[in-house]
Amino acid sequence: MKNTVGLLAIMTGIATQASAQDIVLDPIFVEAESDSTLVQDGYVATEGRQATKVDTPILNIPQAITTITQDQLEDQKPRTVNEALTYTASANTGSFGLDTRYDAFYLRGFPTYYTGIYRDGLRVFNAPSAIVNNDPYTVEGIAILKGPASSLYGVSGPGGLVNFVSKRPKDETFREIELLGGTDDRQQLSFDFTGPLNNDGTLLYRITGLARDAESPLPGFDDDKTLIAPSLTWKINDRTTLTVLGEYSDIESGATSFFFNEGESVDFSDYFADPDYNSYDQEQWRLGYELEHELTNNITLRQNLRYTEVDADLAYSYLTYSTWGHYVETSEFFTVDNQAQFDFNTGTVSHQLLVGVDYGNGSYDSSSAVSYESAAAASATDLTNAGNQDFEQWGVYIHDQMVFGKWTAFASARYDWLDSTTENSSGVIYQNNDEAASGRIGLSYQMDNGITPYANLSTSFSPNVGVVYADVSDENSDSAAKPTTAVQQEAGVKYQLPNTNSLLSAAVFNIDQTDGVILDSSAGPNRQRQLDMNSRGIELEASTSFDNGLSLIASYTHLRVEIEEGVDGTVGNEVSSTPNNIASVWTHYAPQQGALEGFGFGAGLRYVGSSYTTDYNTSRNADRTFVDLALSYDFGAANASWRGVEAQLNVRNVFDVQKAVCTSGTCYLDDGRSATASIRYRF
Fold first, then answer.
1. Phi, psi of 431 (to 5 degrees)
2. What domains can you pick out in the chain, each with its CATH number?
3. Do the beta carbons of residue 258 and residue 305 sit within 8 Å?
4. Which of 28, 199, 244, 407 has the lowest CB atom count within 10 Å?
5. pTM of the model
6. What is the pLDDT of residues 374-394, one digit of tens each?
7. Which residue in 472, 374, 480, 507 sits closest to 418, CA to CA?
8. Mean pLDDT of the 451-479 span
9. pLDDT attached to residue 430
């Protein structure tokens, strides 16, 4: 990573030599996405499996969906998943400040990082600290399904789910190398290669990877990563396809990102952590496959399977309390989803009927040591049990997708069984045997003028990880977490501007949640408690990509999340760090001709409204506005010999806005201004 300049010189030399020899280059495929499970064009996704598990036009799906496409990811160049979601309606990504360890965000006011993370349609199991890290560079799109989705996906939270679509092998040759540098001594090399392995195109490969060496604004808080993600597609015959997807990554960051706070006062000159004892080392890997077989022209069988393992090692410190701790956690999770799709007609009604059985089992084990003397003493102290859990889950589901004329109707039903064994740090064991039904009905109508109104009623069921506390300050008040259930009513409208690549949508929703789990670290790390909440609001969203090179996304959310049952003194209050208003707009313009051809100009504005610092609602986090900018240049526009070479500059939070954001009384600081400069070569 320290030889970035040298590598850049090599790339420049290659391009210069090509120019001197006047080599005629082969056509270049500039699109990175495969469009196999998510069809996209510019900033607009047109079809996907993210809401129904079968390919469906997004315009006709009677539920709110946001899709972050490959082009948006490339233009904005997010460093983390949280950054990628900052322009999404109802997504709150700032509750934990500049903490880069976790993909910790909220949808419609509910935490999503434990029960709402999916990869390629399969659930990602996250333990209390061994949380899977999804890197934006390894995905070709991110689909956000709003509201309960248990009827098809099983265990998931009431706010919705986020499905990361992995980069997959393409049947066209695509190769990319990128060098990137930036603030906080960020240096990164990334690559992405895909194409056929044999002459008849029955074997396709893809290998994606990156190596990063970086610091952060927090002392002793690194942001290093090494990642490799290989995949292989085998077209066994005309009716059968097997795709194998894998990934390994080694991550080094910090363990403590918050500041000293006492009551409602925050001193940001007093950072909680010891810079010499502040590390979060994580290794993770996953391996799985997607097998699809067309049994007949009307029956398709699928099996999706994955195994994931995460090992986390934390060295954390709270200097204000003269505390140093060592915490180790390991999690593993296996999941498989078996599906059968039947396409048929009954009179004038066409059906896509999906039936499935899925299974998952997983576990996590943790151990810890604490010293009130020194970091050296914490390192030398033997680790003892800090809690563990084993669980097994079965689910059966059926989904009928009916189209009759301009009407589209969804009817989904599911039943889940889950058995779990949880042990707390004192050795007390809890046995849970949970089962529940969930469902969804939805209806949409595509009018002649392009407007598609819709409505849905959906429910969710989600067993929870670990233990919860009736009183987070009392270690003896813990118990196994109860499952979370929720029901949503939603109505909305979608609209495609005539003869354009666009999607505009509006939705109103009401969600009632029972036994929701929230993180409350005000009395210690990884403390959780449960409460009943109601979320209601309105969302407006637009995504467009026009032929003249102009693309735009915009969103607005008005939201209120009320505590209906919880700790004394909080009932009737709003949940902390949940803004009532969030708005954003991003536009990117790439002139198609003239003197500015080859340039790309991007600008974004993000507004996050004020919120409460605790559930007691006695003080507020201030509102804030962020500005983002991007500038790129495609050298191939001026000289064909430089085709495939592009430079790009991205600046987030241009005016370095940094304010306190407190969640359940634990306070963080906004991520300040950051900048990256990159040069990419596609060939």
1. -110, 125
2. 4-187+386-682 (2.40.170.20)
3. no
4. 199
5. 0.90
6. 999 999 999 999 999 999 999
7. 480
8. 77
9. 85
